[in-house]
Structure formats: C-alpha cells, structure tokens
Amino acid sequence: MTDNGVFTGVDLCSQVNNHAHRTEEIDVDRLLVRRGQSFSIALQCSGAPPRAPEYQLSLVLRLGKQGEVTVKVSEYQARGAGQWWFSQQAAQSELLVTVHSPADAPVGLYSLALLLLSPDEHILEETAPESFYLLFNPWCKADAVYLPDEGLLQEYILNENGILYQGAWNDITSLSWNFGQFEKDIVDICFEILDNSPTALKNPDMDTLNRANPVYVSRTLTAMVNSNDDRGVLTGNWTGDYSDGVAPTRWTGSAPILRKWSEGGAERVRYGQCWVFAGVACTVLRCLGIPTRCITNYSSAHDTDGNLMIDYLFDENMESISTGGRKDMVWNYHCWVESWMAREDLPDGNDGWQALDPTPQERSDGVYCCGPCPVRAIREGEVGVKYDAPFIFAEVNADLAFWVVHPDGERTQASVNKRTVGRNISTKSVYGDQREDITAHYKYPEGSEKERQVFEKAGRRVSQPNGGQGQLELSIKHAQAVHGTDFDVIVEVRNAGEEDARAHLTVVSTTVTYNSLHRGECQKKTARLTVPAQRAHKEVLRLRYNHYGACVSEHNLIRVTAFVKTNDQEDVILEEVNIPLRMPKLLMKVVGEAVVSRKVTAHITFTNPLPVTLKDGVFTVEGAGLTAATEIPAPGNIGPGEEVTVKFSFKPMRPGLRKLVVDFDSDRLRDVKGEATVIVRRKKWNRT
Q: What domain count does the chain have?
C-alpha cells in the first residue's frame, strides 16, 4: 500500500462473517469462511471511494504455503460457473466488497490482496495481503459435502463432544470423547497435517488443487492420522508396554494429541489404538467442514488373505496353533469413521456416508489407509468399488471357522459361525447421548435371502462345516463380571440326540486385548462327560481375581473358549465368548455456577474396587471450551475399598453446553472414566 494511497485499511469483518459461516466457535479474530457462500470485507479510503471508469478493482488470491496457486478475481460482470467473483458497493469513505467463492474451490489458507487498476489495467495501488481460511461447506447445495439436514449438521459438524462405543456386542459400553474441533489452533494443525502429507511435500501444486475434492482430502487424512508411512500424527501400539509414551486408554480427547504432534515438529505421538485414531480423524474432518461420525463394529473381522474367512486352528489339546506370519483375527470391536460426501468418481448411487479407517491394518495402494468407501456398496456386496471395499466388506461379513489339527496334519472343521462377525454396528445418536444401531446400513438381516444374494455378488465362498453337525450343542453363559471380583462361567453341553453321548470337554479362560492379542492364561478345566439323551450337562468355571488380575490387559477383557469332542471324533464343537469386566465410574461434581473466564471447581471421587492397593494413580481432566487436558496426581496410594476425592479448578473459555471428562489410571487399574455436563453462561457485565 502506498503512503499516499487511496486505501487506508482493510477490515475482514471476521466477527460478522464467521457468525454467518458458522465458524465463530473457531475464532472471531481471524477470518474463516466456507466455500460457495459469500463474505464481505471493507476497504477504508482516504476520501471518496474510487469509481469506474477512472479506476478498476481487482482481487488476487494465493493458496498454498508458498502461494503455489494464484487466482485473479474479477468483478461480477465476468463471473462464471466455478469461478471466484466479487461485487462492490461504495459508502462515503468506505468500499464494501462482497466476495463469492465457488463451491468446488480448494480448501486451505488463502492470502488476499486488492489491486487498484487504471483503465488500461496498470496497478496503481495494492493492499498488503490478508489471510483467511476457506473450509468445506455442508450447508451449500453445490458443495460435494452438502448435507440437507440441520439436525445432522449440528451433530456431525458443530458438536465438539462425542461418544465412542466399546465393550462387547452383548455388553456395550460408552466412552465420552472430546473432539474439540473448535479449540484454539486446531484448524491450523488440521491444515498442517495436510501440508505434511507425502503428496504435498513432493508436488505441492497438485496437492493444493486436489484439496477441492473431499474424496482426496479424506483419503489423505486416513493415511496421515497414523504415522506408519509418513509424518503422520499417531503411532499404534497394542503390546501393553507404553512406557515411552501415553497409554491409548489415557487419552480423553483429540486436541492434546494434535497439539503434541504440532508442537513436536510433526513428530509422531505415542500411542493410539482404533478408537483414538477414529476420534482424531473425526476431529480433523469435522474441523475442515466434512460431516463425520465415529462408528464401532462389534466382532470385527481382520481378513489378511481376502478370502472372507477367518480361520482359527487348534490342536487336540485345545492349544492354539500359530501358522507363522500374519494371521486372521476377529477384534472384539473396531472403530472407524464415516464422512458424508458425493462420489462423482463413482457410478450413481454411491453418494452419502463413506467408511474411512485411519487405523493402520492393511496397505491400500501401498499406504496404510482405508477408504473412503460407500457404505451402500458394502451393503450391496459391490466389492469392486473404490476404495478398499473388499476389506471393509470382510470386517462386517466374514465367516468364522474353527479347525482342529490332528497329529497327522489332517484338519477337522469344528464349526463355522456365519453370525458372529459384524454385530450391533453403532454410532452416537443425533438426538442425545443414546446409541444408534446402524447395522442395517452395512448388511441385510442375517440369513435373509437378500443377504445370500449379496454374498454371492461379493464372490464369497459358501462354506459348509465338515463337523459340528452331530447331536451335541455347546453354549457359554456368565454372571455379571465386575473387575476385582470372582465370578462364574457356565458351560452347557446339550445332547439333542436320542442316545447318550460320551465326550471330552475343555474350557480355557485367557486375558486378551480388544483386538484379540493373547496376554495370559487364567484357568483351564477339562472333564470327561456322559450327557444323557435330550438332556444337558453344565460345567461351572470359577474365574478368580487372583488368577486374572495380574495379567488382565488395559482393555479389561477375558476370553472363555470351550471345546467339546465326542469319543468317536465325529462331533467336534468350539464356542468362544469375550467377557468385558465391568469398571467403576468416577463421580464428578462441578460446584457453583460456570461462567466464562470465572474460576469454578470440580470434585472428582474414586473408590478402589480391587482387593489390592493401587499405586501411581493419576487423573486426567479435559473439556472442549472448558479446559485443556490437565493431570492431577492421586493423593498417595489407594487401598482396597478406599475412597479418594481430588479438586480441580478451571476457567471456562466458551459459553454453551459443555462436557468435562476425566480418566483415572494406576499401576493395576486403567481406563476408569467419568464425566460431567456443564452449562457455561456468558459473563455478566456490571451495571453502573
């Protein structure tokens, strides 16, 4: 800008624009706007605003860290589809410029400069560049992420608090998660993640232009949320040893993870597991303006060889046999995300929810990423649709086969279970904190004619068991399992035949992680049975804390496997259940009225449920708009049954309905959670 120029200042009108673009929760001091929707800036002038034909006004936009892409913006007379344009209105010593962005413009950090031109288009004056963020716009009909439901947008874009589902298909538990997509600096970090992708580093021009496409952006982010191939955010760890980082169960939200990655110079954060990867991905995608929700699939198959069959091998003593290398498995649950977008790269009918999985499991196009894949394509068995449809189809549909390997190497198929995989697929409801079951979005009802047709379309091998068709039936039941207590597991062998049956029963209990990694054997019981015709035999296995307590994983999960075979070896059956140990809840109470910038105190109470003393206890408290993640050490060791209360003071930062979440970890007990809903009021001004 010249010293004696016409323009004396530029006002980006951030507060008004951000309110209109629903970005005021992110910031009101910086301009953040959504594509396909106009925004206004004011040019202050030293005198009367310049007018045509003596002067012309032009805008220059530069996008990318180094201004890789430059866009010259003309006034409305030259506007066209897919183009930037602006209109202007003079008012005394001010010029109001309304800028219109195309609904398919690349998202990112733009710099904007205004040029004053002579009639022959010589530059007479240029303002200093001003920066602003352009985001996806799900409120705009022409945007590929358009979602025509305000209630869904309130949840899938604007809600900073969420619920992730864990536990088991028949014992579902919920975990509060702070997405915090509008927390300070998170939007900058989201674009920093994109800037660190391999494509952005190698070919920034191409990457910048591709950011117009939510398919490209979401797929890039599923690769960048994990750090397996690049300068990504999180490293996965399922070993149980997290001494050089943070245990995945400790995290209560995404913002601390994203800040730690950014502050460390794009150094990977240790550690994450599937729900952490999903939570972080949801934060980034919502922040950028792509409607996103977290999904939990129970009994989720990890099919490494693509045959839609999960094979478990056992010897005749019920010992698991390792085949060497990577093996198929069924995770107790697995979390991913769905994002809403149009799929112009696919045939009609594939718009809508797209499955994306940032947890590093299998490579896709040589990179650890997964999706986006239309959920509709999974339901219809259209596994040829990109991206990664066969892998996701197997996660919700694979068969589970148990094999007994005999000493001579021959195999007997003990059982085939077609109903285990892909159960109670869950997400948080838009109507509150209750669970919504979306299994029907991914698959037709088990055993239905339509389901059979889908399997055939997907090229699934229809498997028939060689064994397990005889007269014996096997089932496992258990009492409510509370961590720290002893409880019973009842194995029932029922004889549906007309003759008595002699059999050998083996029952094994082991501690496992949620993704089926073995941590230790608790108890094993064998029995020789004679089961009368049309009757049942019940065997009780007492699971004691002094057996499972020392080796239970941080996921607090016990697997019971029962194996029965008849004396003539013709009838071989295997049954398996995962038993989540019920955890105590932290009690949290916020004392007094919560007001922006005014100190308020929370009381957190915990009672040790275990028959052992807990050491090295620490509480972690976090809340979007309330407080950054803060650690509070427990006041010394906590004896069996002992109750402790800690106090935590904080100053709420933003008004509205907020959620404070807390985690407790110790040497012998991890992943104890609690939460409190807080209504934060605006600061009251004193009347004079």
A: 4
Contact 605, 619 (CB under 8 A): no
- Would residue 464 count as lying in a domain? no
Pairing of strands 269-272, 234-236: parallel
Q: Residue 334 catalytic?
A: yes
The active-site residue, picked from 274, 282, 335, 373, is: 274
The whole domain housing 274 covers 151-457
Q: Of 399, 429, 457, which residue sits at a domain end?
A: 457
- Supply the DSSP symbol for 93: T
Rounded CA-CA distance 121/410 in Å is 85
CA distance 461 to 466: 15
Provide the CATH number for the domain around residue 227: 3.90.260.10
Residues 108 and 171 in one domain: no
Can 45 be counted among the known catalytic residues?
Answer: no
Q: Buried (b) or exposed (e) across 96-127, using 16+ Cβ within 10 A? A: bbebbbbbebbbbbbbbbbbbbeeeeeeebbb
Q: Is 357 a catalytic residue?
A: yes
**Per-residue pLDDT at 346:** 97
DSSP E strands, 64-127? 69-75, 85-91, 94-100, 108-117, 123-126
Pick the catalytic residue from 21, 302, 334, 547.
334
Q: Does residue 280 lie in a domain region?
A: yes
Radius of gyration of the chain (CA): 29
573 and 591 part of one domain: no
DSSP state of 369: -
List the catalytic residue out of 143, 230, 303, 357.
Answer: 357
Say if residue 338 is in the same domain as residue 415: yes
Does residue 542 share a domain with residue 426? no
Pairwise CA distance, residues 330 & 334, whole Å: 9
Q: Count the alpha carbons within 13 Å of 130 in the hemisphere toward its beta carbon.
A: 21
Regions in the chain scoring below 70 on pLDDT: 1-4, 66-68, 76-81, 304-306, 318, 323-326, 460-470, 567-571, 685-688
SS3 for 161-208 is EEEEEEEECCEEEEEEEECCCCCCCHHHHHHHHHHCCHHHHHCHHHHH
* Tens-digit pLDDT profile for residues 176-209: 999 999 999 999 999 999 999 999 999 999 999 9
- Residues 178 and 244 grouped into a single domain: yes
